Amino acid sequence: MLKGECVSETTLKYYPYLYKRDRNREMSELLFHAKLLQGKILDIGCGDGGQARVLARRGFEVTAVDVNKKIVDIHNSKSNGNPKFLCTGFPDLAVEGPFDLCYALGMSFQFVYTREEFIKAIQRVYSLLKDGGMFIFDMMPADTINPEQFGRRTDRIIVKPKFLLLRASDVQFDGQIFTWKADYHILNRHGYRHIVENTKMRLWKEEDVCGMVSTTQFQVQGIDGELGYDNTMNKTFILQKR
Ligand SMILES: C[S@@+](CC[C@H](N)C(=O)[O-])C[C@H]1O[C@@H](n2cnc3c(N)ncnc32)[C@H](O)[C@@H]1O
After folding, report:
1. The domain containing residue 155 runs over which residues?
2. Which of 19, 20, 21, 159 is most buried, by the most CB atoms less than 10 A from its CB?
3. pLDDT tens digits for 92-118?
4. If you write DSSP's letter for every residue of the chain in order, what string do you get?
5. What global pTM score does this model have?
6. What is the CATH number of the domain that holds 59?
7. For residue 14, how far is its CA from the centre of ligand 1 (angstroms)?
8. Measuring from atom 15 of ligand 1, which residue has the nearest CA?
């Protein structure tokens, strides 16, 4: 199983403060693209689990997976069984299908580092879908990355009555691998902690992604902007099983 760090059990606690995500809007757009009103859904790389919970509340049967066992255990301890959280990930995806929709958002498909792994992973997703089922994933393509993001800087300072958080990020990109070292300095009633998270993602050009997708029977229904947001660098790939 390939494993990329990011969204640890520590940052999970501070996730809503670090990222202002509108999970309802993201999931509405996802369902609109998938043209789905009911059924079985697989969330791959569920992170904080917010998207999977929205879908479960809307009546879908949701399996949500992540390679980070600690956060999967935390989610399961709070879940009523839907979503069902499992510790697995690309490319193996040890889950039972078939699903009407599989999705990998928040760039979780970018923890697959080689062309061989990408093709193995996408073929596995294909095998987990019903005929006509959809696979929707987003990516930060190598051709749209903004060099202004590179280097080291303090990019979050959060001041709340119960805690203070400062994050310093160091972002590098060598043309293929995007690395993000994040230093979190957190002061709360338990004292001060310094946590370091290293995220390593593979960035592809849009044409490379289309080339790898074309090795499968998936049909590209569209390539859109990031779900829930306008004018971001991320692209959403919408595929259908033929
Ligand atoms: C940036 S988070 C995105 C979380 C959530 N999907 C969202 O949109 O907010 C990326 C997630 O991918 C997970 N991940 C890393 N390697 C993975 C793999 N090989 N397969 C599936 N998920 C993986 C990480 O543990 C992390 O929770």
Report:
1. 147-202
2. 21
3. 999 999 999 999 999 999 999 999 999
4. ------S-HHHHHHHHHH----HHHHHHHHHHHHT-SSSEEEEES-TT-HHHHHHHHTT-EEEEEES-HHHHHHHHHH--SSSEEEE--TTT------EEEEEE-TTGGGG--SHHHHHHHHHHHHHHEEEEEEEEEEE--TTT--GGG-EEEEEEEEE-SSEEEEEEEEEEE-SSEEEEEEEEEEEETTEEEEEEEEEEEE---HHHHHHHHTTSSEEEEEEES-TT-SS-S-EEEEEEE-
5. 0.93
6. 3.40.50.150
7. 16
8. 4
